[in-house]
């Protein structure tokens, strides 16, 4: 009875949970790749979108379906990067460069940061809730 925990008769799924988070992180990377691809569609974005699609097909065939919400959380990474790039905004921001200065218009970073945090947390919460629902079904099904 090495895989049984206590009196409940349920399988000790500590390794199962870790594997579930591994699949979630794999989907997070797919979502990040797709988000970057869509943000940069006019330059290198098409390559990122194709890479994300290929990885998604692989993950759909081999991983648990509930981990797909990691793709939603993955969209947070490009949003965090946009917040970082606009950290000096809003308005025109100038930096000294050899021989003068370089100025760019930047947006307010807070909306990107808030949207990224909301998307990241929403995906994680959904992943945890679906994992609990799955474990509760296994316990009551025994």
TrEMBL record:
What's in the keyword line of the UniProt record? Membrane, Transmembrane, Transmembrane helix
Domain of life of the native organism:
Bacteria
Residues spanning the membrane: 27-60, 67-87, 107-128
> Can you name this protein?
Integral membrane protein
Organism field: Streptomyces doebereineriae
Q: What is the lineage of its organism?
A: Bacteria, Bacillati, Actinomycetota, Actinomycetes, Kitasatosporales
